Amino acid sequence: MPPLSPRIRATAAPPIPSVRSWAARYAGQAGPMIDLTQAVPGYPPHPELLARLASLAGSAATAGYGPIDGEPTLREALAADIAQFYAAPVTAADVAITAGCNLGFAMTMAVLAAEGEAVVLPTPWYFNHAMALSMAGIRALPLPCRAGDGFIPDPERLEPLLAAGARALVLVSPNNPTGAVYPAEVIARCAALCRRHGAWLVLDETYRDFLPAVATPPHALFQDPAWRDGIIQLYSFSKAYCVPGHRVGAILAGPGVRAELMKALDTQQICAPRPAQAALAWAVPALAGWRAGNRDLMAGRAAAFRQAAGQLPGWRLESLGAYFAYLRVPEDGPDALAVAEALAVQRGLLGLPGPFFGPARNSGQDRHLRLAFANAALEAISELPGRLAGAG
Hints:
Blueprint: H1 6-10, H2 15-20, E1 34-35, H3 47-57, H4 72-86, E2 95-98, H5 101-112, E3 118-123, H6 127-136, E4 139-144, H7 155-163, E5 168-172, H8 184-196, E6 200-204, E7 231-236, H9 238-241, E8 249-252, H10 255-268, H11 274-286, H12 288-309, E9 316-321, E10 324-328, H13 336-347, E11 349-350, E12 352-353, E13 368-371, H14 378-388
Parallel strand pairs: 1-11, 3-4, 3-5, 5-6, 6-7
Antiparallel strand pairs: 2-8, 7-8, 9-10, 10-13, 12-13
Helix pairs in contact: 3-11, 4-11, 5-6, 5-10, 7-8, 12-14
Cofactor: pyridoxal 5'-phosphate
InterPro entries: Aminotransferase_I/II_large, AspAT/PAT-like, PyrdxlP-dep_Trfase, PyrdxlP-dep_Trfase_major
Organism: Siccirubricoccus deserti
């Protein structure tokens, strides 16, 4: 066989299929399988959104190519939503629509960094971010975040990495995998450090719709007119609107980035799926109340998970938020990888072990397990103490 790309071969295999393969060895003795591996909304899309998706998918009007940077109606709707959420003057000219947020991240990195350059990823990191950088030949510089700090990045530990020439810092808040929500002052300090060292700050705010309802926005970066010269935001429609299979995301960026981004958009996607864009243009303003209800539903599941975790001797819930719980497995037992496999095979519970969320060596995550509780109804969450007890 002719050789394959060394970059692709050096990139880690997708973790979720790897873990789900263990399920084939589960005999059902603990009850139905509970799959908490992937961040999937545990409820269906709004019925009217489904109806519009079906109608628009059958329309000749959405069958052709669309604008490279997205349908104007969706760009306008999202810009208005962002402007209200962050109390900032954002317009459709700042928005580009992408075929999912993962592709949005990959295209953003193509604009910001070249082969051999470096991008800072706080660890535990979102594994698809690290995989995208690996495929592009961009070095991922880990910024270890400690449980004792609530997995919040420490700006003091960040500065040397930026001073060494990193092209960008990526912050995910609410975080995947830990669920940690970064305080506004930490985000502001990181932004200032990036500006001082000539690096970009990339904010992945995929889960911002599940932040607690408060009077102030999660940060004030977009209230500074100069944000367009140093900050990029990534967003996903998948979680808030329950449409991950339709692959729609967004990039918020200033004109300098957007001019270069159009090259990546045209090459890698041509246009994002048009029926979904048209349906979401309606949904963004029309389903605001429905989204708020789902935020409260997720908060209820988080509270139920916290209560369930409190019933587990030896386990420690070290972080929880948005869709995710990050637990430390008992100290006197096997590591997280072995625990996760045993849970899948013996207890019918699928979760992702911490080593998937850091560098291959010295990740510091070998005692952690991520469970995406958003997937599970309250009845399934109530079963978790019984499934987890004794597994460590």
